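Milestone 3.1: sequence recovery, worked example.
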């Protein structure tokens, strides 16, 4: 059970216990950084409850889960949009029409922090009125953005980065190429999900290499080149995920150069990351200001 999921043993043990006793909590919330196994474990748990076998993305049920549509569950997968009150109303309607007696139904919400304040308040009321044999499976990258009252009403699991040795050992079992493994470790910063995605997607691997090189070369660029880079990273073609990845690589570079020496810049980098996530600021101006301070 859960053999396909690397690490997170404490969380897996609790979920195993719930499966064995069939004593499910009303709401499970998996919290932690991107690409460390939250959705993989969520899908595995969902599959074991509904089909009694491990999650297979090629099966009929697996394909339904991946697209977020299927009998017995309703999903709100991350599409880059906020979750509004209308989505909560859909949940309420689905709960009222839940599946046959004796069968557990589910609501899957990826990145719960996408809820607007009004939607979160409406969702809180839903959680306060639990429905028998209905389970919420949710993930979040930013638990601090959630209402404290929502956090208090869920079974909370905090995911952390796996030890480097564990990630390295797993990748070596898949790749058999130590040089490639070291590059995957470097580009993924230990996030096993991202490493696996790069193994399967050559275009993604090349893009991560490019973003990494941008960050590593920042100290060798003059102000004109830095402003050109700020302009490039501000283009619509550069996704929010790619920009976030670049900022993470830049933070790693600053730490390599000396955490104490660049403490102020690292603090500013964290502020910039939060700005990009929470607001519609002018990317170019913010990046130019950030680069000027390095």
């Amino acid at each position: 059970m859960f053999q396909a999921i690397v690490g997170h043993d404490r969380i897996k043990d609790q979920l195993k216990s719930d499966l064995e006793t069939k004593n499910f909590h009303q709401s499970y919330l998996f919290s932690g950084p991107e690409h460390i196994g939250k959705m993989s474990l969520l899908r595995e748990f969902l599959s074991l409850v509904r089909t009694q076998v491990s999650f297979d993305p090629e099966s009929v049920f697996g394909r339904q889960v991946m697209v977020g549509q299927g009998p017995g569950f309703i999903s709100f997968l991350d599409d880059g949009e906020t979750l509004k009150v209308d989505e909560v109303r859909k949940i309420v309607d689905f709960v009222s029409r839940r599946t046959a007696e004796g069968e557990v139904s589910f609501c899957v919400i990826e990145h719960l922090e996408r809820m607007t304040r009004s939607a979160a308040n409406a969702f809180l009321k839903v959680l306060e009125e639990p429905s028998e044999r209905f389970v919420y499976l949710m993930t979040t990258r930013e638990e601090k953005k959630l209402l404290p009252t929502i956090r208090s009403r869920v079974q909370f699991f905090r995911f952390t980065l796996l030890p480097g040795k564990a990630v390295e050992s797993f990748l070596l079992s898949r790749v058999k190429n130590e040089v490639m493994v070291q590059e995957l470790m470097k580009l993924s910063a230990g996030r096993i999900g991202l490493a696996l995605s790069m193994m399967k997607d050559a275009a993604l691997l090349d893009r991560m290499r490019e973003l990494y090189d941008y960050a590593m070369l920042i100290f060798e660029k003059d102000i004109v080149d830095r402003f050109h880079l700020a302009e490039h990273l501000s283009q619509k073609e550069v996704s929010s995920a790619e920009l976030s990845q670049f900022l993470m690589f830049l933070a790693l570079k600053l730490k390599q150069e000396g955490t104490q020496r660049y403490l102020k810049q690292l603090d500013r980098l964290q502020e910039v990351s939060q700005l990009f996530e929470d607001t519609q600021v002018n990317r170019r101006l913010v990046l130019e200001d950030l680069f000027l301070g390095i």
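The chain has a mean pLDDT of 91. The first strand starts at residue 27 and ends at 31.
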